[in-house]
Amino acid sequence: MVSSLSLPRVRPLRLLVAAGICAAVLAAPRVANADVILQDRGSSATISPGSQAGWSNWTIDGRDVAVKDWFWYRVGSAGGETSVNALSLLGATASDGNGDGFNDRVVLTYGESRFQVTLDYSLTGHPSGEGLSNLQLIARVINTSSSPLDFHLFNFADFDINLDGLDALTVTGRNTALQTNGTLWRVASTVTPRAQQAQATNNPAALLSSLNDGSPTNLGTTLVGPVSGDTAWAFQWDQSIAAGGTFQVSENYGTVVPEPMTLTLLGAGMVTLGAAALRRRRAVAAS
Questions:
Q1: pTM greater than the 0.70 cutoff
Q2: 230 neighbors 167 (Cβ within 8 angstroms)
Q3: Per-residue b or e along 108-121, where b marks 16 or more CB atoms closer than 10 Å to that residue's CB
Q4: Which end of the chain has the lower number of beta carbons within 10 A, N or C?
């Protein structure tokens, strides 16, 4: 004999609420390991959830200033660092916050048995021609285990403002990086909370290699610049995260890229100054 099961009665209102939640989840744009493009007015950003390319494009008025910006981690004091994309990608959701038809935010969630890492990117553009853009990033580490977690979070950042390898970079207070190229180009990054360690370098490949070499990396506090040439920086947070606890880092990136008219005027000004200097030299030579 097959016994019958007595099922609990479910009220219609609960069914409607559950259906609404499911519909909302299904309606949110989902992305997997494919590149995510964020766009808002005069700027766009490309993020690759499935590789160390990470955030690899930041175009403002047609000029791409980003080479790579991504996160690595280490649990404990031994062993090397691992890029977050090596973790399981548990979720990736892109959304359009201002209703202009383009995604301007993406939330990536990675995890393993002991913890989860969430990277939340939001792009704010400015009208085309202003040369301005901001990207807000919130990185969260959640200890899902029942024991404290000795966690080390690394953010590597490599930007090339004018594609000429002639940038100048200074890291101050272990919470601010300022990269410039001449007097007009600028990329600035401010982080909260202040990192325990930080480093500025004119050898990005070596700094990146230190995060991938299988040995523990400690950035220190003394190599913070100023440096010039092909530059990059990294921040390191060393945290003991309680069981069930969360550690969060907020970063704000801002750029100033001159619009074409500014460059034209600057070029005309340099020509004028050069001509004036040439006339002065000729006058001195003739006297």
A1: yes
A2: yes
A3: bbbbeeebbbbbbb
A4: N
Rounded to whole angstroms, the Cα distance separating 24 from 42 reads 30
What is the distance between the alpha carbons of residues 249 and 71, in angstroms, rounded to a whole number?
A: 11
pLDDT in tens, 62-80: 999 999 999 999 999 999 9
Of the candidates 140, 151, 154, 175, the one whose C-alpha atom is nearest the C-alpha of residue 252 is 175
- Token pair 């007015």 is found at 41
Classify domain 23-164+174-194+236-273 by CATH number.
Answer: 2.70.98.10
Identify the CA nearest to 165 among candidates 255, 253, 254, 228: 228
For 86, the token pair is 């090596």
Q: Which helix (H) or strand (E) holds 51?
A: none
Going by C-alpha positions, the residue among 218, 233, 222, 198 that lies closest to residue 78 is: 218
Name the nearest CA neighbour of 211 among 229, 187, 236: 236
Domain boundaries along the sequence of the chain:
23-164+174-194+236-273
Q: Residue 234: helix, strand or coil by DSSP?
A: strand
CA atoms of 54 and 86, how far apart (whole Å): 12
Pairwise CA distance, residues 99 & 101, whole Å: 6
User: For the chain, how big is the Rg over CA atoms in Å?
Assistant: 24
Q: Of all residues in the chain, what percent are helix, strand and coil, respectively (each to 5)?
A: 20, 45, 35
| 274 DSSP β-pair partners | none
Read off the tokens for 270: 């340099």
- Per residue in 193-231, pLDDT tens? 999 999 999 999 999 999 999 999 999 999 999 999 999
